Amino acid sequence: MIEIRRILTHVEEIHHEFGPVAPVPLRRGAIAVVLTNPFAGRYEPDIVPMMEALNPLGADMAQQLRAAMDVPVERIESYGKGAIVGSGGEQEHGALWHVPGGYAMRELLGWKGDRAAYARGEAEAKTGQPGNALSIVPSTKKVGGPGTALDVPLTHINAAYVRSHFDAIEVRVPGAPAWDEVVFILAMTTGARVHNRVGGLKASEIAKWDGLR
Amino acid sequence: MPARIRKLIVQVDETRVEMNHAVEPPTRRALAMAVIDNPYAGRYVENLDELIAIGEELGGLLGQKCVQALGIAPADAQSYGKAAIVGEAGELEHAAAILHPKLGAPLRQAVAKGAALVPSAKKRGGLGTAIDVPLGHKDAAFVRSHFDAMEARVSDAPRANEIVVAVVVTDSGRPLPRIGGLQVHEIKGEDGLR
What we know:
The structure holds two protein chains of two kinds.
Chain A: E1 4-14, E2 26-36, H1 48-53, H2 55-69, E3 78-85, H3 91-95, H4 98-108, H5 115-119, E4 139-143, E5 149-156, E6 167-172, E7 181-189
Parallel strand pairs in A: 3-4
Antiparallel strand pairs in A: 1-2, 2-7, 3-5, 3-7, 5-6
Helix pairs in contact in A: 2-4
Chain B: E1 5-18, E2 21-37, H1 49-70, E3 79-86, H2 92-99, H3 104-110, E4 120-124, E5 130-137, E6 148-153, E7 162-170
Parallel strand pairs in B: 3-4
Antiparallel strand pairs in B: 1-2, 2-7, 3-5, 3-7, 5-6
Helix pairs in contact in B: 1-2, 1-3
């Protein structure tokens, strides 16, 4: 069910954005995998088996992205994910990425929660700081033609309200997706916007460990 | 003055399946880009030495980034190309100053040899302008399987006073080459052509 046609990794280092040069440049990375869309060209009522089948791919992609970024797991501070479905598919095919994409990164970054509970649609109890990667992984998806750009949203891995880390990274695979392809994307960064200065909750002030604050 | 770099970007594009045919081994192309200040933005300057020196610096830096991203020995690089996008307050000659006089030598060092001309493209552009970096075999320009191009683009560059400089290095040709011409195993690699 899972056929990888192409893999594109993108890593950028931002030294400044016309303000003071960052002592340690911000690193942002994305990995986009182009898969054959097994449901292209028809309405398939039961697509959930593919969600399960995507789990190992998600884990591989998260590892590959971290390796391409060449930083230890401990330096990853924000993340996001997305999907671009070729014209023979539907938005719902992109939605298959929510669980396998998000949890792949969260597990890589030290999340200790219960993936099965989430898959069942249940909440989980939280006390203290239960591991890392507590925030929901923000996402976006669209149906588009070859070379379509997707702005993948990014938020802090432990508290979605951390204002310095709200960001987005544009991801685009020239030539993909073809009509019978889907592009699944993961993105991670090592920190806040390079000249962040609009206040709000700081990463150092995270206290509730509920994924939000 | 070394280049004032705002952003460095490295991409690796790996193709495993094309037209339902497995590509074995997969083709891999690495693109490295630097977004830099254009020291001559907004004025006509006769002598472009500063950009020529920046070209030399970036030829090494971007060439090495590509080879490193591919995880190969320099000698295993197969094709290459270069390009620049000049922001609105610059001129085409600024791209030429970066690309042509001195960028090649350190790039060739990064890919061990490089008898062939480094194919190039340049244009003026705004934020997100794409440029197709032409590719050719590094030791023999006539190798038909390695004629290719890789699209390079930075969503927030070049600003008017910036230049995007791109280098591509591959460890392969096109995914399923089958239109004949000079083959890799026939290369002499002396004159840069065959």
